[in-house]
């Protein structure tokens, strides 16, 4: 859960909910979810019975277990793939899974092997990189100005 919170909006109560869950209940729900795959919808349903676990949190668990099938539902990748990152419903996640599975398959046809989770991480990395880069309206300095050159010591 802590990993998920570092990649998205901080929700402190969510950590409290999940921390209060009984280990046996979590294990049972997880096993049912994993056994439900490749039916992503059923797998998400099995995990969302846990208090504090919605489709986005379920996607984090499923992506760790089955990256070849299920990507994490990051805001950045959702925005890039679907144009909307604020709809955390199962319906939206299934659209997201379908898009990223298709893109992974398309990329893999060129000889390399890509998973939906690979595609999600690439989209997330690009978005985070863009948001932390300098203002794109400024032209980068390719040549230092004369006054900024260092003088040689003789």
TrEMBL record:
Superkingdom, taxonomy of origin: Eukaryota
Disordered: annotated segments: 127-154
PANTHER family, A to Z: AMUN, ISOFORM A
Name of this protein: ADA HAT complex component 1
The species this protein was found in: Vigna unguiculata
Compositionally biased intervals (Basic residues): 143-154
Positions with biased composition (Polar residues): 128-139
């Amino acid at each position: 859960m802590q990993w998920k919170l570092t990649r998205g909006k901080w929700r402190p109560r969510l950590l409290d909910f999940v921390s209060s869950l009984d280990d046996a209940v979590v294990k049972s729900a997880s096993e049912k979810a994993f056994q439900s795959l490749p039916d992503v919808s059923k797998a998400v349903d099995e995990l969302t019975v846990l208090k504090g676990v919605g489709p986005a949190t379920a996607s984090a668990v499923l992506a760790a277990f089955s990256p070849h099938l299920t990507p994490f539902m990051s805001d950045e990748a959702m925005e890039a793939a679907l144009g909307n990152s604020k709809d955390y419903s199962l319906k939206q996640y299934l659209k997201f899974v379908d898009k990223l599975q298709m893109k992974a398959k398309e990329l893999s046809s060129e000889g390399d092997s890509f998973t939906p989770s690979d595609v999600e991480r690439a989209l997330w990395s690009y978005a985070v990189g863009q948001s932390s880069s300098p203002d794109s309206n400024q032209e980068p300095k390719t040549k230092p100005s004369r006054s900024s050159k260092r003088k040689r010591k003789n």
